[in-house]
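Take a specimen:
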Amino acid sequence: MPAPVPFDPEDVAAAKGKPRAAKPGIVTRKTICQTCDIACSVVSEVKNGRVVKVRSSDNPLFRDHICMKGIVAPKGYANPNRITRPLKRVGARGSGNWEEVSWDEAMSDIGVRLKAIIAEHGPEAWAVSTSQWNTGTDHGLGRRIMNHIGSPNWISGVALCAGNTAAVNRFTYGWFPLGDFGSTNCIVLMGHNPRRHSWTPIYSAVRKAQARGAKLIVMDPRKSSNAERADIWLPLKAGSDTAMMFGWLKVIFDEELYDKDFVETWTVGFDELKARVDEFPLDRVAELTGCDPDMIAAAARMYATSGPATIPWTPITDMQRNSTSGIRLQSILRAVCGYIDVPGGELLQGFHPDIIPESEIEMHHVLSEAQKMKQLGNQDHPAFTYRGQAAFREPMKRVWGYDYPNQVTGCYMANPSATFRAMAGKGPYPVKAFFFLGNNPMMSYANMPMIIDGMMNQHLIVAHEHFMTPSAQLADYVLPGDSWLERPWLSDGFGWMSTYRPSEQAMEPPGEAKSTFEFWKHIAAALDRADLVPWENLEAFYDYRLAATGQTFRQLSTETDVYLTVPKYRKYETTGFATPSGKVELKSSVLESLGFDPLPYFREDPPEDPDYPLKLFTGVREDGFFQTGHRHISEMRERHPEPVAFVSPGTAKRFHLEEDEWVAVENELGSISIMISIRESMPDGLVRVPHGWWKPEMPQGIEGLSGARKYADAQLCRDDEDYLDREQGIPHLKGVPCRIRKLVETAPARADESALEVAK
């Protein structure tokens, strides 16, 4: 979520902000923090060519948008263990031995080896994993090069976090909406708990909305900080979100609280949907969710009658065995209540008419249909693959102007699990070259043991990184990447917003660190396709995209905080929706054509296994960290020195657990070591495990991977069919069976505390 609200042009024009008085020797730069996916506008203070402080923006629109991650970023990127020179593996893969080489030497060898792999196995043998949320941006160049070379096997962590939501939203109304917090009358947080130091703009927007009288409904097994502030809190069972939304629709339909005019005029499949909803009377929903039926009904009425209302994106629904149905039900609730493309509801922004989007840069049209059909996972789990999105080409062109609009980079990608299986020699064909950029793939996807097997089976692995992550430790080359402080950036909302914000370069990158733009420019040249990246540098590339505005990037970045068009509401009255029918498809014609149930449904969990009596709730981020990063920053580790699992007092009593006790949390896939913390806010039977733990101070190499083999939650994330969403093939991270086993050991010893020292 790069911005919390669709900005009002009048507010933008009025909110210029008065720059603070300059300090002696300090130069300020308007920057956008890319430490996490929120992309807060901040100010970087520069002295003697180095950023010495990151502070809140002078613009009142962004003044509250800063957290600890942004504040400590200069120290984090100045860490003495940062990679600043290209590294080439010496010895066996995972041995932990490296030598410094030049970029030219690295690229020459990479080019020769990648071309040989393509010649022997075909271009589909090359897979790439990246995430714009981690690298700031991929600029569309990675997909552009892969499409020209002929590889369809690009994957991203957004396959199970926002990108899949964007892709699935298309099945209902053809775009990924943006909630209007500034005007909404009701906010629904589904397992989502934005805080001051995590999702800071969303936290502020929710608090401001409540202050002016907006209602807040929270669905969360935990009694979170937002649940404590909510008008209604529904403590549903983990993974039962889809059942809860069926219950809401049952109330809304039975009591005729929906927007009849909109439903009659702009939807298809209402009668079929209503029949499916009738399968979920409130007593059944109460049993499935564990919530009081009267409270379920009260929440449904509040949402339907308070309007306009918004259901902000949440990563929780993205990561469930009923994910596709859950995301579709969110979309359906918005639509049937009349909250789509209206002020205070959910805006379908589309593209800015004067700026070339990354979707055009990607050039998906040059990839042949034959290669598209080779995309891994497209037969079993096609939702966000080329095959699954093919029916939207004409509607997308009709409404949004592009055949292949790639929202949140969540469209036209391969299935991650299928890709790693192919890397491990268990796919329809081999994958033998694997590149990853700002992405720690072995810890970012499900089934870490299989991912490691796949990486060990590669002929070529290239990483573009800041630090020697566990995944980078298995690479052939680790190439140094720059940070958001060290490059210009044009924030485009990750492909789903018409609002743009520029970020100035605050300082030069250290050593030979290069941006993702430079990385892909080098790769294109190494593949004898330098023509694919003709721009001399990143600013020239941005100038190309901005040409129709009459401004250069430098002009835009110095003169403008937010560049946007006047919002237009109810655009569908002119264009229709970007679906095959041109209407909101409550019954999806595309899903039906792919062989899936065209209506949302609910799959109940498999029978309980007495060997695994608890439920695992994973994928949770601590405030101080984003994904698998920041473990090297001393200020963050002081707040969270060890991985901690939360359990209820009842669970602790049942299994004789004590505060700060080290235990093993395990299931059929693997086991991790973790400390116990007993929390009144947790429901009985649920074990909350944080995402992405490793310790950069621990020994590198295949045996331990800096603690990843001991602590990483990805070792518990199953990707067998019982726990995969059918349409998308994404894993269930919100209720997988597990158990807790007591350990004899106390806190594990740290091997090298020096890795946590921060450069002064």
In short: The longest helix spans residues 103-121.
